[in-house]
Amino acid sequence: MAHGIWNHNSEIFGLLHKMDPDRYNDPKAFMRRYGVDTPSSQDELRRELARYFYPGKIDSGKKAARRVEQVSLTDDQHAAVKTVERHLASARLARM
Hints:
Helix content is 54%, strand content 0%. It is an all-alpha fold. The longest helix is centred in the last third of the chain and has 21 residues, at 75-95. The protein is elongated, with a radius of gyration of 29 Å.
């Protein structure tokens, strides 16, 4: 029985054994319990794996109010930007 990224239940056992070797230490028992490709064993395996998964997003119920404001540069800021652009142009020429 394939589970998305896993090809076989033995791969699932290997992953669980790495995460919790004390709990998952008998591959034969694991395969007896979850290795049969039946709906009930698949459901049991999903429940077993549920403790190791977490949701990618939790909705807080709050909505963020966002707005965009355009802020004009002052004359001094425009001059500073022009100075930086001149220095960058000089650096590009020096690199060539």
